[in-house]
Write a structure and sequence with these properties.
Length: about 300
């Protein structure tokens, strides 16, 4: 996809949608559902039972592609507003200076001050962190209602939705081409003669994944569950930066036909690992939201 075409239909591979911001789908319908299903099915036993129920797992799986369903030209305002939340091009983001601000509007102000449009750089980590905080708030409400022996059905449904919604962006962030300005064809110096055609993005995450999903065995590659320490935005940025270390690997695999047809053992193994990374991160973020929801709420600050 060219700069004008990060809006690719999940239903019709190769259909380009022109929008006011660059956009692209990661993993397509099949990959996103797989990531969410694996994550929800691997939540530890001390997570609330309602999040681990078969019905919740089914709903979280369904919600994996949900934000891509909001990307039709039939809803142009919605498309324009949320398309940048699926990616971040770390090269121009880091050119603004690191570390990046934790709050969305602080980042946007910094980008505008440097003469850059934040929607062209991408808003991925802010969207993911904000949804995670929504999930944590819902789980805190669940704890409070449970302690008061009140009905928790409605807040359970809210938490399931937030978990599924979160999974889409966590999945996006496991796809290396969602972290770079080389998202759909190599740009800049190209001594290794990587493809500059605007098709690698969907060829990898959409066509190849859909055609080989049964051969992509991601579950064994998931990492052991762990609670995440420290600030979630910082942890999420570390996750994104690790994903970005594989950008060139994607181009290397494409160069040898790794995403054509059944690909190669190496390309299938790489893709399985990337899907597993998304599922592992989502599982750990949901689990951490549950644990953190039980911590005391800090006193509000009125200095802002």
């Amino acid at each position: 996809m060219a700069t004008l075409s990060r809006s690719v239909s999940a239903a019709l591979a190769g259909l380009l949608l022109l929008s006011s911001v660059p956009a692209a789908h990661a993993w397509g319908n099949e990959g996103h559902r797989l990531i969410n299903r694996l994550a929800a099915g691997a939540l530890p036993a001390d997570t609330p039972a309602f999040l681990r129920s078969p019905a919740a797992i089914q709903q979280i799986e369904y919600l994996g592609p949900e934000p891509d369903r909001w990307r039709s030209p039939s809803e142009p305002e919605l498309l324009s507003a949320q398309a940048p939340e699926h990616f971040i091009d770390l090269e121009p983001a880091d050119a603004l200076g690191t570390p990046l601000p934790h709050k969305r509007f602080d980042f946007m102000q910094k980008a505008y001050a440097a003469g850059q449009r934040p929607d062209r750089i991408g808003l991925q980590p802010w969207e993911a962190t904000e949804i995670w905080e929504r999930l944590k708030a819902a789980l805190r409400e669940y704890r409070q209602l449970s302690a008061a022996h009140q009905d928790t059905h409605d807040v359970e449904q809210a938490a399931i939705f937030y978990a599924g919604w979160l999974g889409h962006y966590v999945g996006d962030a496991s796809q290396p081409l969602h972290t770079t300005d080389k998202y759909n064809g190599w740009v800049g110096p190209n001594p290794n003669n990587y493809t500059t055609e605007h098709k690698i993005h969907w060829q990898f995450e959409g066509i190849f994944v859909a055609a080989n999903l049964k051969a992509l065995d991601a579950q064994p590659k998931m990492t052991p569950v762990h609670a995440m320490d420290g600030d979630m935005f910082d942890s999420y940025m570390a996750y994104l930066r690790h994903t970005a270390t594989y950008v060139e690997k994607v181009y290397q695999l494409e160069k040898v036909g790794g995403f054509t047809g059944a690909g190669t053992p190496e390309s299938r193994d790489f893709t399985s690992e990337r899907l597993a990374a998304g599922a592992s991160m989502l599982r750990d973020m949901i689990y951490t939201a549950w644990l953190d929801s039980g911590k005391p709420v800090p006193q509000p600050s009125y200095s802002n």
